[in-house]
Design brief:
Number of domains: 1
Oligomer: single chain
Shape: elongated
Helix content: over 70%
Length: 97
């Protein structure tokens, strides 16, 4: 049973890294949106391609406002997943060892 516990722990840590990377990518996108970046810059295009599939559904659910709150909502969702899901899965994995 310890092998399955180690497997859950490893997957949970990978998921945590992915969530943290998404957090930073969305933060960078929100920060560069303040300076009106060049849309043809490859870095800006990469940021938009990676973060838009996450931000677009949230943006559709929110009412139209003067500013975009979708990054803030996604930040809260990421923090919730890290505190609830990641810690719960780690606890399950450690108990299975």
């Amino acid at each position: 049973m310890f092998i399955f516990g180690n497997f859950i722990i490893a997957l949970t840590r990978i998921l945590d890294i992915i969530l943290m990377m998404m957090y930073w990518l969305i933060l960078v996108r929100a920060l560069i949106s303040w300076v009106n970046p060049d849309p043809f810059n490859p870095i800006v295009q990469f940021l938009y391609q990676v973060t838009e599939p996450i931000l677009a559904p949230v943006r559709r659910l929110l009412p139209m406002m003067a500013f975009d709150l979708s990054p803030l909502i996604v930040f809260f969702a990421i923090m919730f997943l890290q505190k609830f899901l990641i810690e719960s899965l780690l606890e399950i994995g450690y108990r299975m060892r």
